[in-house]
User: What shape does this take?
Amino acid sequence: MPGFDAVIGFLYQFGDAAAFLVLCASGLAIIFGMMGVINLAHGEFIMGGAYTTVTVAKLGVPLPLAVLCGALAAGAAGMVLERLVIRHLYGRPLDTIVATWGVSLIASQGTLILLGPSLSDISTPLGSVEIGALSYSVYRFVLMGVAAAILLGLYVLFNFTRFGVLARATIQVPHMAETLGVDTRLIYSLTFGIGAALAGATGGLYAPTMTLVPTMGVQFITEAFVTVVVGGGDVFLGTAPAGIVLGFIKSGMTTWEGQLAGQIGLLVAVILVIRVLPRGISGLMLRERA
Amino acid sequence: MAEDPLLTIAGLRAGYGGKPVLQGIDLAIPRGEITAVIGRNGVGKSTLIKAIIGLLPPSAGSIRFGGREIGALTAHARARLGLGYVPQGRDVFPRMSVEENLKVGMSIRGAPNPDYDAIYGYFPILRERRRQAAGTLSGGQQQQLAIGRVLVGGPSLVLLDEPSEGIQPSIVQDIARIGVDLNRRTGLTIVLVEQNIDMIRAMAQRCFVMDKGRVTAELTPAMLDDRDIVRRHLAV
Assistant: This one.
């Protein structure tokens, strides 16, 4: 049944692309959407998470725990960066871009000097499964599930916990949250840490599927920025739908004309969106609701 | 003057970007009273309130609250000591529900089981609208929410910045009545910045007049009853 195989094959490609976009972008979207900070060091948090995960996994720690270590390491690094650099640049978006770009260069070049041009990688776990005539990597299905679970987890965190309520209050009217007794600096610090931890988790999750080099962040950051630009500032109303739409475009173009066409499709999509919806999908949705 | 003022301000100076607005404020707010600060537009009344709550760092002078110097504390630390702030323009969290807005006010106490019944008792409309986004409420409802949001944290001093601004008269009366009621029953100290003569007369037991960044006069309750005196101090 070639038709069946083609459909399943496409759905697999689509799910894989959408999961990758959502995982790449969610940390960046939280930091941008909630704090207005454009974090060009996002890719290096992903790299840091991947390196930590692989290093810990090689010590014999099971992969899920190793990924958690990667996320925590990146989150901690994020909170340190927030305290040392970002905090002094709130309300100065252009300065933040330059500063985080500098951090990104220091992190990737520093890793190159300290750890060399590459880290020996670990193999992709879980093997493959045959559906119809084709076989698919089981781990890729796990990644799709994890992407959905992370979105759900973030939704619960920001809507049903005390931290979530205080974080949204801080993001909406910072000075008012402060005068109601909310330690807004701590909220910003934790929010930045969560964004960085999500980047670290993304790095850890994709570490078994790719070669670990100090500049690996670059492979993620284009996709992450495209998704955030298309989605706008809201993770749930923006990043999730943008990941799905762009995943569809990318996998469609890739199936049709190969990887390069997929990349071109993404970039054309983002140019069109900037033209038509400068505030992204969530900007459109929020304007209609308000 | 009561022997033990709750809030004492001495020689307070503050401004925006080097432009001085407050030029040496001296003020004592007695415990358990409703004090109004009046004056024409632009004399620094809102700036004074912002300096008290901590949104504007003082360049000189002292602010003592309950016997403790708070001039160097962050705004959230002052709030946790029992200072409540209801800003001009309300500043509700627009994309959060009424109940979530109250929950932020509650967070001061860190109470595990929020009990909003007292607030809903004062402002029944908030119970009715508790699941509605605060940004979709009318101005008067937002003002009630902004006051409820501060009261839920159990402050000992509430700073009200122009609570009557842009609100229909019936709700202004409600707010004045609730303020006086809270003051009588719980001893809540209130500092009110206001232009609306009726609101000042309905609430204030004492009244300070500000001009050009200084406190220039104090009006007694008897003088507050004389509309001409009050009007003269408010006139542009």
